[in-house]
Structure formats: C-alpha cells, structure tokens
Amino acid sequence: MTDQPLSPKIVEVAAAVLVRNTAAGEEFLLAQRPADKIWAGFWEFPGGKVESGETARVALVRELREELGIAVQTAFPWIVRQFTYPHATVRLNFFRVTAWQGELHPHEGQQFVWQPISAFSAVAHVSPLLPANAPVLRALSLPPLYAISNASELGECEFLRRLEQALDQGLRLLQLREKSMPQDELRSLAIRTIALAHAHGAKVMLNGDIELVRELGADGVQLTGTQLAQLNERPDVEWCAASCHTAEELRRAEVLGCDFALLSPVLPTLSHPGAPHLGWDSFASLAAGCSIPIYALGGLTLKDSETSWQHGAHGIALLRQAWPEGSSN
Q1: Which Pfam families match (predicted)?
Q2: Would you tell me which of 5, 22, 267, 287 could form a disulfide with 312, CB atoms 3.0–4.6 Å apart?
C-alpha cells in the first residue's frame, strides 16, 4: 500500500471590504502589501490570518485594529473564496465592513487607497492586484436589490410604467420571469423591457431562455433548477445566475461558474401559502462559505435588507414588493 499525498493545508484568512458613501458614490478600500511581506507591493483587501481559537469575525476585528487602527462596528459576512498560491492555499472569508470608529492609519507603513463602486463596476485603478482578490470586484459590483417582473399580474402597460418609475429611483438589476405568458408576448415584452432598462444603465436577466438572451441582447440568464442540474458548462452570456433551494444546488451553481444565486423561499409567500420555507437561520447556514453572492428571496420587503446582510446575503430579491403602486409619470 502506497502513501497517499497529503492535502495542502488551507490558511484561513479574514478579509475586509470596507465600504463608504461619498458625494461621488460608494467606494471600497484597497491596501498595498508592505515591503517586508510576500507579494510586496501588490494591492489587496485588508485583513490577515485567522489565529488558532479565533473565528473569522474575531480575526477581522483584530486585524483591522492592528493594521489600520480602526474599531469595527458593523461587519456583514459575505463570500468565501479559495485560492492556491505557489506558497500556500488560502481561504478568504470576506466581510463587508460598513461602520467603524477611528481614522484610518497605516500602522504597518502600507499605502491604502479608496476605489469607486457603481452598478456593475467595481474598479481598481491601482496595480498589481493580488490574484486572489481580482474576482471579488465583479461580485462587489452587484447592486443590493434584484427585482423580478410581475407583468402577468399587473398587465404589460402598468408593469412597464412601474418599471420606469423603479429605474428612475435607482433599480439596476431585473429578472424578466413570466412563465404563464405566451412566447410571442414574452418576446415583445422582453424587447421593451431591455430597451427601457438599458436606457437607465440597468441589466436584464431572462429566466431560463439562453437563446432569447443572445437574440435580444439581454445581459444574462437566470437558470432554473432543471437547467442547473443538466448543464455541463456555464452558458456563454455576460451574466449567469441560478435559482437555488438547497445546499446541493448552491454548490452546483458555484461549480458551473455562476456569477450569483437566488436562494428561496426565506419566509412564507403569497404565491405558496403554507409551503415550507427556510427561515433566516437555515438561510445563513446554507449561505455560509459560498463563493458567489446570494440574494435572499421569498416573503421579503425592502425593510429586510439589513437582516439579509446579517445572515450572509448580498442583498434581497423582490417580486410584488418591487413594484409598489405610485403616481403616474
């Protein structure tokens, strides 16, 4: 019997995405690695190794105090990315840090810089960027609200009116999901929806129809559970998301290379009264450790946004609640 090769030890790291609001918009912080450390001069999200006996959150608080001289007040668990360098395999436990006390001060002599975030654009204007952190920028650029269409219930004209109103108020990500609509009507609505959204700088995901995404110039596809199970490779579209209900489906979405996922139902819904739902604790357990952003869906309102962040979600997805009745434009 031959010896089996040992798996490389994984180094647990706590990483902070510090986010602040300015007059020009949201910004995130990058720090440059000091000259006495490996990968010196590379830019990264601040943080450091999780020490024995620490949780990732405890390590985050300690590292930001030691490196930047700040006391973390609010940190939301986000995504977990694993990366293998020549010298080590690291697992980066990312937190979005939105509130802290104290002024940033580079205690280790490192440089740091604030970089802009806008819808679908989180840009690092500095280089070189540490390889493990580059994919995080795409995830960071996703908006906190994902709206799902409700044209079959509202009627096409009323839906488009409310869509324009929502776009004027900042909506930047929409899924067109109208399963009961005849295909010719859906195609016509998709054309109008995409044109309206693109005029406002918003993205449109089509539910399930990869070919229609390509034909009409939509921005991506929202894969159904059946598609997720059957596909062997990621569709060749700009953005790809998956609708998930279980841990197995989330893992499948990661393996397939999806950009983000929907996880539902979190709370009881009007469309499925009495049906089982996850609840926030189960949602958090399923989301923990996921490498792609997750939107919480099912029975939610805008007031649930912070609760979703506390439980590991990137944001919330809304159906009826995304289209409140308002005055005509």
Answers
A1: NUDIX_4, TMP-TENI
A2: 287
